[in-house]
Amino acid sequence: MRSVLFFNGLGQQVADIFCEKIPEGFDVQWQSNRLSDEEKVALAKNAEFLVLHPAEISSGVLRNAGSLRLVQLLTAGYDKIDLRVASELGIPVATNGGANAWAVAEHSIALLLALYKRLVQCDRSVRAGTWRQAISGFDTFEVAGKKVGLVGAGNIGKKVARRLKAFETEILYYDLVPAPEIEAELGARRLPLEQLLQEADIICLHLPLLKETRGLIGKRQFSMMKPTAVLLNTSRGEVVDEEALVTALKERRIAGAGLDVFPNEPIAPDHPLLQLENLVLTPHSAGHAYEGWFRRVRFAWENIQRVASGEPPLSVALPEQA
């Protein structure tokens, strides 16, 4: 029997979905990801496959897992795993293969609509009995006719582009790798980052956290944006200089922001972002949707079976990306 160990931070429901799909010839043990490293080392010692959600494991555990053939994540992100150590040990680390891309794309658009329509304020006003006092009639906006600037045109970025094109927008994108399919299908224009920031009304971040993307959007970049621009971040908090963002929002250098991710999570209760009205915040929940768990689990098992049969895994995160 092939040994699979699942460190799970989301409890019984996710474990049940994972264990319901166990292929023949595999033995699964799942444990809470909150165990100590010492406890994890003891459990991982003989495991061939390690499944993680969230994507967190210490290098010490990896170094002591002598039989490990694959670390399979149920997440898209991998920034809390030392890929260089994993590579030195010959252990590939695979992401979820874009299984949560649908949910993240939809969440990005939900943040945009909440900002443009002041939905949080309107809900609060109705509940307080003040009806339409949350809006003036001149502080809500249409998406139609706006320029959408995608910073990152990978799997999620492309899904956002297709959905927002249906709102009758113009699609701009910045990516080191061209995306000819959305250029042909949607008329998307690939631009240098500075030009995109200057032109876009809606700026969507869809980037992994790499050394090149850390702090990519900072004081200088905010100064390039239109005062009517909104920033949406469902990627990683560290991609944005948070201090510069707070200043840009306070001083109305940009109109607003929709954030699902933060450099430190959960966000501190006294954080200055929580004092601002021109943004919508969610608790790093963009990728969480009922349907997505089944895609994550299906991809994980397919990848595990690939490796078990001697094939290379798909969707591998590379050390040079970290």
Give the topology.
Blueprint: E1 2-8, H1 12-20, E2 26-32, H2 37-44, E3 49-53, H3 59-63, E4 70-73, H4 83-88, E5 93-94, H5 101-117, H6 119-127, E6 147-151, H7 155-165, E7 170-174, H8 180-186, E8 189-190, H9 193-199, E9 202-205, H10 219-224, E10 230-233, H11 242-250, E11 256-259, E12 279-281, H12 290-308
Helix pairs in contact: 5-7
Summarize, please.
With 322 residues, the chain is an alpha/beta fold. The chain is 35% helix and 16% strand.
Output the number of helix runs.
12
CATH homology superfamily of the largest domain: NAD(P)-binding Rossmann-like Domain
| Whole-angstrom Rg | 21 Å
How would you spell out the order of helices and strands? EHEHEHEHEHHEHEHEHEHEHEEH
Approximate helicity band:
25-40%
Q: For the terminal residues, how far apart are their CA atoms?
A: 33 Å
CATH class of the largest domain: Alpha Beta
What structural class results from the helix and strand content?
A: alpha/beta
Amount of beta strand: 15-25%
Number of domains: 2
Largest sheet: 7 strands, parallel
Label the overall shape.
Answer: globular
Which fold name fills CATH's third level, the topology of the largest domain?
Rossmann fold
Low-confidence stretches: none
Question: Which strand order do you get reading across the main beta sheet?
Answer: 8-7-6-9-10-11-12
Question: How many β-strand stretches?
Answer: 12
Q: Mean of the pLDDT scores?
A: 97
Any guess at the CATH architecture of the largest domain? Answer: 3-Layer(aba) Sandwich
